[in-house]
Design brief:
The protein is an alpha/beta fold and 595 residues long. It has seven helices and 36 strands.
């Protein structure tokens, strides 16, 4: 009996110690930091470079580089915090893996070449205090699709957004009093431009080489258009001008001479602070007729650009609908939904809708369930870009018949593993690996693109979920050309440390094999012999039980219940044995031998 009681005590102790150790496991984070200005500091953790403090950053150059350039390949997002007043020259230039930038309202100036040739930059959230954007500050940011210039902006220097080839629309606010030459030249995908600036001349080469520019709106304050301001804008057909009379006629002649395509010139059309413009173009190709309907709206809270493209061929008519939006925190979602409905209403009767995309660029990482719910049951593909550089893809059809949470937090901690625990090493060995911890529960089907970095492009990334004393292999994907790993997740828990291994294989699946990996759509041409795993299986990494709780939570509860039961049984047996001894019970010889 004493031996049994002793065993029970050991079991209880072991279970309690194990539970205590689980709660004390730390999350290792490699952090680099230093000074980058008088009263301004920098820190790099989990791919996010954070600038903090008060005052201006130092200016840097091609020779005296910023201190974080030693870690350039690992920087995926930049956050310039409240209190910082200036972003230094050359501060973040040529950061190839940078995808997202957030700038606080305290920042008044962005230095020359600050983000020069950050080709992967997609999301740019400028604060409402920026007054000056320096020379070539965003030149050759070829991935930048949308930007809202704040109402505080006064100066745009030479080449500020030169060759931002993915930029689709731009509004130069009325606060701008200095606009230098060639600011938006060779923005080859720019479709609409609104010039509200408080200037008298639109400088030469402003929109030079913007050969997809469809419409432009110019304030009456401008009385002269500089030489070749619209040179090679071969698609520009619609121009709206706020003035009239001889000045309007002169400007019309200048634009027409540059483009040779201007068909519609409207006078007395002064751009408002909140504007919406539509344009329709039709192009006859060899075997098809393509009609493109574009609409842009801009206000203090958002930029929304929609496009409906209908293609008629001898085999039928197909239409694609795309909506791009840059939203301020907590606003603009209803406007996005309205823009989508308007675009869908422009789909010709009988046309087959081949694609419906809604691209949303957020300044914060939290979205409400009610905003997502606006798209429930639709055939829209939501592509939500967050400040950390991740992209969350959600299909509207997957939101139907789903009870959405009040809000979803889409932030996470993604850490490269320099040292591995025994459990991690047993899973990935010597291979490169990351841990990823999501900050919120996501209980809907998502395809999340995690920015591992271009160094891992075309490698195989394997997602592992902790189960018991080991990590279980859940999904393998091929990292795309931009260094993004596309994982298909059906449920993730908050605070759970998941594991991502690079090129990790098993005895059955060699590490250099792609045969078990999901291939991103953008890379199908590279793997023509492999089947794209459709329909995709969304990985359940934290399956909910019938009780409405996560399996991990249920397991913890069961462990606690087991501990209580074991302790109760042990106490009961001890108490009963004590009573038997008190009543004269003498242990038999067999009992003594066992002891």
């Amino acid at each position: 009996m004493k031996k049994m009681i002793s065993k029970n005590r050991k079991i209880v102790a072991v279970v309690l110690i194990a539970m205590l150790l689980i709660t004390l496991i730390p999350t290792a984070a490699a952090v680099e930091s230093g000074s980058c200005g008088n009263g301004v500091t920098w820190s790099l953790s989990a791919g996010t470079l954070t600038i903090s403090g008060s005052g201006a950053m130092y200016d840097y150059g091609e020779l005296n580089k910023a201190p974080w350039m030693a870690y350039a390949d690992s920087i995926r997002s930049v956050v310039v915090g409240d209190g910082v007043t200036k972003i230094g020259s050359f501060a973040f230039y040529q950061l190839a893996n940078l995808t997202a930038v957030t700038v606080a309202d305290s920042v008044q100036e962005i230095g020359n070449y600050a983000f020069f040739e950050c080709a992967g930059l997609v999301t740019l959230n400028l604060g409402n205090g920026v007054k000056t954007i320096g020379q070539s500050a965003f030149e050759c940011c070829t991935g930048l699709k949308a930007v809202r210039l704040p109402g505080s902006l006064e100066t745009l220097r030479f080449h500020a957004f030169y060759r931002c080839e993915s930029l689709q629309s731009i509004t130069i606010p009325a606060s701008v009093t200095t606009l230098e030459a060639t600011v938006f030249a060779y923005c080859t995908n720019l479709c609409t431009a609104v010039v509200q600036a408080n200037i008298t001349e639109l400088p030469h080469w402003t929109f030079y080489g913007c050969y997809n520019l469809q419409s432009v709106t110019i304030t009456a304050k401008i009385t002269t258009v500089g030489a070749e301001a619209f040179h090679d804008c071969s698609e520009l057909k619609d121009a709206y001008y706020g003035g009239s009379g001889d000045v309007a006629e002169k400007i019309q002649q200048q634009i027409a001479a540059d483009t040779n395509t201007l068909k519609n010139f409207v006078t007395g059309h002064e751009p408002e602070q909140s504007t919406g413009h539509s344009s329709v173009t039709t192009e006859q190709k060899e075997e098809s007729l393509v009609t493109t309907d574009r609409t842009q709206s801009t206000d203090a809270d958002s930029i929304i650009h929609s496009q409906t493209v209908t293609t008629q061929t001898t085999t039928g008519t197909t239409t694609s609908v795309v909506v791009d939006a840059v939203l301020e925190p907590g606003s603009g979602w209803e406007d996005v939904n309205n823009a989508l409905e308007d675009a869908m209403n422009k789909v010709p009767s009988g046309s087959n809708v081949s694609e419906v995309e809604v691209n949303i660029h957020l300044k914060e990482d939290t979205i409400s369930g009610s905003n997502l719910g606006q798209f429930a049951g639709s055939n829209a593909q939501l592509n939500i870009h967050t400040p950390q550089g991740a992209i969350w893809h959600i299909n509207g059809a997957d939101l139907s018949n789903v009870e959405l949470a009040d809000s979803y937090r889409l932030s996470f901690s993604l850490l490269p593993l320099s040292e591995k625990s025994e459990k991690q090493y047993a899973t990935v060995g010597e291979y490169d690996a990351f841990t990823v911890v999501f900050d919120g529960v996501v209980d809907i089907k998502v395809e999340v693109e995690l920015p591992l970095g271009r160094a891992y492009a075309l490698d195989k990334a394997v997602f592992f979920s902790p189960e018991g004393d080991a990590f279980q292999r859940k999904q393998a994907v091929v990292v795309d050309r931009a260094g993004m790993a596309h994982f298909y997740l059906g449920y993730v828990t908050a605070g759970t440390e998941y594991l991502i291994g690079i090129n990790v294989g098993t005895a059955e699946v060699p590490g250099d094999s792609y045969t078990d990996a999901i291939i991103p759509d953008s890379m199908q041409d590279m793997f023509p012999g492999l089947e794209h795993l459709q329909p995709l299986e969304y990985v359940i990494t934290g399956q909910t039980s019938s009780w409405g709780m996560d399996i991990g939570q249920v397991t913890l509860i069961l462990v606690i219940v087991l501990v209580v039961v074991v302790a109760g049984v042990g106490f009961t047996m001890f108490y009963m044995n004590k009573r038997r001894l008190k009543n004269g019970y003498v242990p038999e010889t067999d009992d003594e031998d066992e002891e």
